[in-house]
Specification:
This protein is an alpha+beta fold. It is built from 1 helix and 10 strands. Among the domains are: about 25-80, no CATH class; about 130-210, Thrombin, subunit H (Beta Barrel), CATH 2.40.10. It is elongated and about 80 Å long.
Length: about 220
Amino acid sequence: MKRLLVIFAVCASSLVMGTDVAQGAINSGSKCPKVGKIITVKVKQKKTVLVCMQEGKKRVWRLKPRGNTPDNPGGSVTTTSPVREIASSYAVLADSPYTRINAAVVPSGYLSAMGLASTTGATLFDHPSGLASNRTNLLLLDRGNNRILVWNVAPTSSSTPPDFVLCQSSATSTASGSGLNQCNWPSDAVVTSTGKLLVADTDNNRILVWGSMPTST
């Protein structure tokens, strides 16, 4: 009986040692059997939680992130946001005189071609950044000059001055400001289907709104 007890104790000791050896062989970066599986191992008498993650074509043990482990819609653990491809092909726009691209085609004209730095004057711009139209008027965001230039009819010549200017008292004034009649680095504009004019007044951190297209200053 005593001999059987000794044999049992030796076997039990071997099993425990085998478990410790097996756990000790598992560490961050080693292969794991199933994505999402979580285990606790002892490394230098310190408990470490590992989670099985998919990295490319491999499944490896990694340290479990603190907090909740992110799951994808299928329930498996992932280190990146899940993305599902909807389509890899796109329709081609039908060829027409309005869609063809020809490297030899040049613009039929230009507006304001003088100056490479700050320029002032009715027909000289500084960093023009946006255009908008209600199919009658043309607006140009002259960003560096802190103003909006408006033509009642789209100009056909670089020498055609705007009919009036918004955000400035004159076509030669370029000061920035924060009042409702002033702009500071206006960068974009849009005319809505109901005729409202919206302008992104960038450095004032606001959107200026006109109930209808202005007809004068």
